[in-house]
């Protein structure tokens, strides 16, 4: 099954591997990216020119001369940080999709929507099994299990956690100190 990406296409695409200088959050699994941990940074912009005045990026000024002082119109933008675990899972999925004949961006889920795209595919369990087989370190660490185990029916499903997506936000990924409210005892 190839992934179909609805919406806009990026004319500007920047992607690089980085090391976290401060603690960050993965836009795919919502888990932590620890200081010193590697992650993939992606920036995409819909157009590489202003749709009003045709000036290329980067513009000479913030104001578009064709839009009465309004900002330039470069279209949609996206900036995403993806942890090394989600990147590993994503590369396993790409291998599966390429073996089945998918090419380019259709061979992997959207950046920032890995688990949602897998759930929407109707083949979530198959993809999780493929990730487990091709990237056993994600199983050994417990990371994949926390994301692939369906949650018990509870209030978290009503708070935006997708069914079958346990761990999209998982308190076990964050130290208890992050949840202390403070105040008087």
What does the model show?
With 185 residues, the chain is of the alpha+beta class. The protein has one domain. The chain contains six helices and five strands, in the order E-E-E-E-E-H-H-H-H-H-H. Strands 1-4-5 form a three-stranded antiparallel sheet. A two-stranded antiparallel sheet has the order 2-3. Strand 2 and strand 3 form a beta hairpin. The longest helix is centred in the middle third of the chain and has 16 residues. The protein is globular, with a radius of gyration of 20 Å.
Topology:
Layout: E1 12-19, E2 24-25, E3 32-33, E4 38-45, E5 77-83, H1 84-99, H2 114-120, H3 124-134, H4 136-140, H5 143-148, H6 155-158
Antiparallel strand pairs: 1-4, 2-3, 4-5
Helix pairs in contact: 1-3
Brief descriptors of the model:
single chain; 185 residues; alpha+beta; three-stranded antiparallel sheet; two-stranded antiparallel sheet; 6 helices; 5 strands; 26% helix
Strand order in the largest sheet: 1-4-5
Oligomer: single chain
Shape descriptor reads globular
- DSSP strand count: 5
Average pLDDT over all residues: 79
């Amino acid at each position: 099954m190839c992934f179909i990406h609805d919406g806009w296409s990026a004319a500007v695409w920047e992607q690089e591997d980085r090391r976290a200088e401060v603690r960050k959050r993965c836009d795919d699994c919502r888990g932590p990216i620890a200081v010193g941990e590697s992650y993939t940074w992606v920036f995409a912009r819909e157009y590489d020119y202003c749709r009003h005045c045709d000036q290329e990026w980067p513009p000479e000024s913030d104001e578009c001369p064709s839009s009465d002082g309004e900002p330039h119109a470069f279209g949609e933008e996206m900036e995403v940080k993806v942890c090394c675990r989600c990147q590993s899972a994503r590369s396993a999925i790409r291998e599966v999709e390429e073996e089945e004949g998918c090419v380019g961006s259709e061979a992997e889920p959207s950046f920032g929507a890995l688990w949602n795209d897998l759930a929407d595919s109707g083949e979530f369990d198959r993809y999780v099994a493929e990730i487990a087989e091709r990237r056993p370190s994600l199983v050994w660490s417990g990371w994949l299990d926390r994301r692939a185990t369906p949650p018990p029916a509870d209030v978290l499903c009503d708070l935006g956690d997708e069914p079958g997506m346990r761990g999209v936000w998982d308190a076990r990924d964050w130290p208890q100190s992050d949840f202390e409210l403070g105040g008087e005892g």
